[in-house]
Structures are given as structure tokens and as C-alpha cells.
Amino acid sequence: MKSSLDPVGTLKGVGPKKQAALADLNIQTVFDLLTYFPFRYEDFRSQALTDLHDQQTVTLKGTVAAEPVVNYFGRRKNRLLLRLMVGHDVVVVTFFNQPWLKKQVEVGQTILVHGKFNAQKQSLTGMKLLQPSEQTVQSIYSVNHQITQKTMHDLIKTAYAEYQDTLEDFVPTWIRTKFRLEPLKTVIREMHFPSTPEAVQAARRTAKFNEFFLFQMRLQTLKHRHQRENQAACIKTDKLTLQPFLNDLPYQLTDAQHRVVGEILTDLQRPVPMNRLLQGDVGSGKTVVAALAILATVLAGQQAVLLAPTEILAEQHANSLAQLFAGTNVNIALLTGDTPAKARRQLLPRIKAGQIDLVVGTHALFQKNVRYHHLGLAVIDEQHRFGVNQRKQMREKGAATNVLSMTATPIPRTLSITAYGEMDVSVIDELPGGRKPIKTTWIKSSQEATMLKFVKKHLQQGEQAYVVVPLIDESDAVEMRNVMMTYTAFQEQLGSDFHVGLLHGQMNEADKNQVMDDFKANRTQVLVSTTVIEVGVDVSNASIMVIFDADHFGLAQLHQLRGRVGRGTQQSYCILIADPKNKVGIKRMNVMSSSTDGFFISQKDLELRGPGDILGKQQSGIPNFNVGDPVADVNVLSAAQEVAKMVTDDAEWMQKPENQNLVRQLHALNNQTSFD
Ligand code: ADP
Ligand code: MG
């Protein structure tokens, strides 16, 4: 029986050569061909002369009034003049350098001319000559060397004629009703052979949904398969056993923290490995959430590891977790690349014997010779700072263990659905109480004096300020001078009442630590710095963040920098100094000053810069879609994800009659491409 999932080679006129050329365009089946939609349309429908504007690209229908004339000037240059009767008016049409067109027209013949209209002269610069039968909206495809527009057109026409009756909707009926989707056959017809602009729009909407839905179905089925094939220990927790720990905390968990702890504990009790991403802005309190997951694991007789991207962060975590766990029996050890060989030799057997409950460290934790007794949970902090490969390695190593990844970088919805689609996501969307949202202002560099006055006033109230200067290349002398100049400028302006510190990447570790300690202890009130302060700095008395040349930073980075203030109870401020040169730059500054929502900001960043710019095309992990735009159409993407989850959450979905078309469609897709 004929099916749209037949190889494209079954079509008349598609031999091995064409088949290979089509494969280059990712077209393997008839279905692929029929969903190879045009990327734009050209309107060749003729218009009335009275409707035209000057310089508009238009199509006119008329009769050839006189024999066309070709004038030559120079060796290669020529023009063809043609008088066209359009109703009772004469329009002079000029074609440059296409003398052969003369042979294609005869006096008295009705033709279509597509070109640019000049209202004053009532003339047309011809671009294309068409037959009256071509008076339609034409689809334009992205094609390659072997396949021309015309071939593509003809192929799709043939395929549609032969296969239109086999086109069955694969999206289950309840979903089609819910989102008022067009039938697949209509979608394909309207996308290729449009009848009206409205019909195309409706078709495109459904086409996008269909594409996203298939993508999500594949993702969800893979996720379910991964869960079936990998078992993890069930970590049963009784909330009561965690209560003493909670009672000992100097604060109450926020509602958001409570919610995500609940989500994590539920995951841990299931026999399938947890793969959860915990997102929460800097300062939202992710550490204590991780601590609760670790405690639950240890109380269930399993071990846990906490992985940090740098030695410094690992040490910080080891210290703060030791404090948090002071009232418990959790045994903690630190293992990094810096751990001396002797200490390491003593530690490894204890880890293997299960005498250590929690190992905190860097990727040294995952080296071959580190063996665990019962590894029940791996927590990965600042997971976005690990490379794609490292992440893959960790995923493989931890395939059968529970993984909790944490990140302070808000992941835009587009990415969390596509690139991170295999993870479940928990969000801490609330900062611990008492903190006020940071007020952000954008000023021009001509207003620096106002900024200085403002900073001085707050310093006099006992507060502290960060001043950040962009430095792309720390070895660049010109850029370094920029930081130094800012540093001396602040020293001069503030006089002897206040002390200014300087921090940049070329300083050695000891000097950096000294500068940081001075600022923490309020021996310096202003810290002028390059972006090295981005990670792991926590000075709650600092209430002002000044960022020079703010338009040189990405929005996500600005958001991170701004997160350095707003950690105490006083009102905090962020002052962006920038003279953006274009609209996008202005928009970006406005996004920053109008929002403190990291998710909103990162989605805007994606929209304004495009995914390729932010992460590199390969790095982004966003798959290529045919019609759907995962950034602009993120709402459609998200709706498709939601229903795909609903379908696959039913363990029997593949057996149900209403899903059979979908099963077939997915089966064909999975046979075609590996999906990794
Ligand atoms: P991050 O999410 O950036 O890792 P941390 O876990 O380091 O944040 O927490 C930042 C600070 O907030 C820490 O000093 C921590 O003790 C404190 N904190 C965490 N949760 C709460 C809470 N519910 N109420 C008050 N302070 C909290
Ligand atoms: Mg943290």
C-alpha cells in the first residue's frame, strides 16, 4: 500500500542521482518532501494600475502593443523596450540585458510582467516575464546545485497529486481539537500552493506545531526509554527525618525552596535515575536545597558527590556544607586536583568502603580510580560552566545514578525545552525574604558626574560599590589602561575619605585574595574591577554596581554582574553606562533597566542576538527546524512539549488505536536519523 513514508525514490523521475541530491536536503521520504516547505512566496498575481504605489514590486497583465525594440549601448549592455496595454493605459516596460526576451513575445499576445513600478513615468523595470497561467503566488524553496526551483516545484506537485489521499494526521485528534489545528492535507496544500494569505498563515501555524510536536515526541520517548533501561536506587525519605536539620537552620526555607525540595525528593524515591536541573538566580539559596537532597541520600545509606567547576568553589562548598551538616552524622571529604597525593591515597579507600558520605570536589571526583561504595546522588554546581563534552562524560558516568544539576544562569525557555529537553527542570523563582529588587538605571557616558555624586552619597551612608569595566583581552595594553584610568578617576573624585581597590585578571592569586578581603572587610569602599568578580563573590554591604560600557556585555552577563548587589537588606542599585550605536543596543539596555527576571532577560538575549551568536551554532544544541523558529515561536514549542509529555506519560500510549498514525510516523523518523 502507498504511504507518504515511502522513500522519495518511489516517485516517478527520481533516480539514484536525484535521490542523493534530495538526501542532501534531508529529504528521504515522500513525507519529507511534502513537508519541505517554501521559505518565502513571490506574488505574481496581477494588480490594477490604480492600486500601485511608486517603486512597488508588482505584476501587471496586459497585451503587447508593438514589436519590442532592443537598443545596444556598449559591448554588453542593452535594453529591451516593450509597450504594454494595460486596460486603456500604456505602460512602457524596460528589461535590461535580456535581449532574448524579444523572441518570446508577439504583438497582441497577453503576458504578465513582474517588476518595479515608476508611478511618475508610468513605467516598469521588468524583472520577470510570465505566461498568464503563471498568475499565482509562487513558492520559493531553498535548493542546492543539483535541484533547481523548477525541479523542486515539479517534484512536490507530483508527490502531492499522487500521495494527497495517503496523508493522515499523526497528531492525535484531542490535541488537534485543543489547538484548533488544520488537517495535514490542507496544511501541505496551502503551504505549497497557497490560496489566500490567511489560509497560508493558518497552515503555517499548524505546520510549526506539527514539527515541534514530532520533535518533542521523539525526545519524550527517548527519555522514557532511558528511564526504563537504567535503574537507580530508590531513596526513600520521610520528611520527618529531615526536620531536625530544618529546625537547626538559622532561617526558614522560602516557598520556592520547599517546592523544589519536594520535586527532588519525589524523583529520588522513584527507581529511575533523576535527571533534574535546578535553576535559581544567584543568592536564591540552591546550596541548602542540595544539602537536603544529599542528607536524604545519606540517611538512606547511600553516598553523594558534589561537583564544582573550580577548586575555589569546591572548597567554599566543602566549608559551607560542613557548617550546614554540623549537627548531623554526615562525613564530608574534599577531593580536588590540589589534594596532596598522600591525603588522596588515604581518602580513596575510605570512599570505596563507604566511610565517607559526601565527597565535594572538582572533576577529579570522576577519575577512573575513584570508586564509590553506593553512589546515590551526584550534584553538579554551576553546570553550565562545564563544557558540552564534560557534561556528556558526567552523564554517561552517572547514567544509573541520580543527578541534580544546578545553575544560576537562567536558561531561556527555548533552550530548556530543546537543548536541555531531556532534563526535568525545577526553578527557584523567589529570593530569600527581606531582599529588595535591584533598581537599574541606564545613563549615557555624558552623565558620569551624576553617577559619581550618587555613589558618593551612598558611600557616606556606609555602603560599598562595585565598578566594572569590560575587558575582553586582559593582555591588551589599551584595555588595561582603561581599567587603570577608571581606578585613578575614582580615587581622585572620592578624595581621601574613601578607599578604592583594584582587581583584574593579571594579578596573582595572593594579590587578588588580598583585594577581595579588603573589600569584604570594608577597608576599601569601592572595588574597580574587570569581570573577574563574576564568580563566588558575596559582600552583602555592597549596594551599588556601576557597569561601564555596559553594551559590550551580553545580557546574561550583565544580569550575573548585577546579582553581586542586592544581597543585604538595604535598597541596591545598578547603573549601566552605555552609548549604544544601534536599535538592538538600545533595546538591550532597556530590557536590563526594566526587568530583574533572569528568565525573561535570557529569552530576550536569545531573541536579540540569536542562538548562534550566544552559544555558537554547534554549541547551542538547538536542533534545526524547518518551519518553526524555536526562539520566536517558543510558546508553540512549549505547548507541543506539554502535550507530548501527556501522551507519553501513559505507559500504554503506543498500543492505543488513536495513536497508531503517530507511532508509524515516529518509527519512520527514528529509522532515518540517529537522534543524539
Ligand atoms: P546560590 O543559589 O547562589 O548558590 P546560596 O545557596 O549560596 O545561593 O545562598 C545564598 C545565601 O542565602 C547564603 O548565605 C544562604 O545561607 C542564604 N539563604 C539560603 N536560603 C535562605 C532562606 N530561605 N532565608 C534566608 N537566607 C537564606
Ligand atoms: Mg551557589
Computed over alpha carbons, the radius of gyration is 32 Å
- Small-molecule binders: adenosine-5'-diphosphate, magnesium ion
Q: What topology, given as strand order, has the largest sheet?
A: 11-12-10-13-14-9-15
Distance between the termini: 32 Å
Mean pLDDT: 87
| Share in helix | 25-40%
How many strand units? 21
Number of continuous helical runs: 23
What does the overall shape look like? globular
Question: Which residue ranges are poorly predicted, with pLDDT under 50 across at least 5 consecutive positions?
Answer: 612-619
Tell me the major beta sheet. 7 strands, parallel
Give me the secondary-structure category: alpha/beta
* Percentage of residues in strands: 15-25%
Catalytic activity: ATP + H2O = ADP + phosphate + H(+); Couples ATP hydrolysis with the unwinding of duplex DNA by translocating in the 3'-5' direction
GO molecular function: DNA helicase activity; hydrolase activity
Enzyme class: isomerase
EC number: 5.6.2.4
